[in-house]
Amino acid sequence: MVDRAETLRHWLALIRAPLIGPVTFHSLLQEHTEPQAVFGLSRGVLEKSGLKATTIEYLLQPDWQQVDADLAWLDASSAHVLLIEDRAYPALLREIPAPPPVLFVMGDVGVLGRKQLAMVGSRNPTPAGRETAYDFARHLAANGLTITSGLALGIDGASHEGALDADGLTVAVVGTGLDRVYPARHRELAHRIAENGALVSEFPLGTPPTAGNFPRRNRLISGLSMGVLVVEAALRSGSLITARLAAEQGREVFAVPGSINNPQARGCNALIRQGAKLVETAEHIFEELGGFAAPVNIEPDDEAAVSAPELDAEYRRVLESVGHEPTPVDMVVKRSGLTADAVCSMLLVLELQGLIASTSSGHYCQTS
Q: I want to staple 357 with a disulfide (CB 3.0 to 4.6 A). Which of 124, 127, 144, 164 is the partner?
């Protein structure tokens, strides 16, 4: 009978070998069947296999102390390691090109087998974009979909929060080892996700957030999911990389359209021109994917149902001069015909009333 602990020890050792990514890992398994066999090869055989010198040195003298630390991490009740040959390994992910041989999981492994929708977008969204992501995630999670994203600032974080606030499930795929939280300000959010879903990484413990990790992370976000919804994205962004990977993996790609004047909407609009499904409501996603729980109408709470404050003519003119896309103050002045001093004063009042929100660039946009 195969010793699971000893097998796991060699798998963990092999993924720590320098310059061995998923493609090389699978190639070695095809040739030698099990990682144990790889560590039994002589220097001459390893050199003939075309491996780099640093890789060969590691395979001849593995860092067993670090591997034992990985195994000690598994003593935590919610910590898991899935090998690609395990039954619990997510079936959809196994189908993608060069799937990760090993997955580190913190939380409920069973969530990875549920129907998932990925949600991605800008790290610096407009207030309206963040609100849109939160609302979509909340509605979709309340209707049985698991929301999968990347734990990044902006749209990712809003998507996770929307799912959690609906008492739904969410999965965060990260670009570091699971002993780290990146960005650090999402530490509390990461703990909530581990309790109501799962944190997932293909990177061993101690892996820092280097730039090359995140494109690899993105292919897992799309690979775990039935489809990918892009809420806000610039023309050059990691979100568009995720959308491209999703299309290559045979997943559905959805995009929320935006104003032509909003730089954060140009990526979504470009995706729609390229054939992504335009969505304006969560029902559009259910209609396209099918097979999920019938959508329900989420009634607004009492606080949200309170009518908007009454505005006089000048305040109404300023509000109407602020678009749903980020609008600079001088444009509000031009559209309203009022003085700059008057406009700035009214913008502050409108923001305090929750009718508009300011962006990091100093622009304003309507909140609903």
A: 127
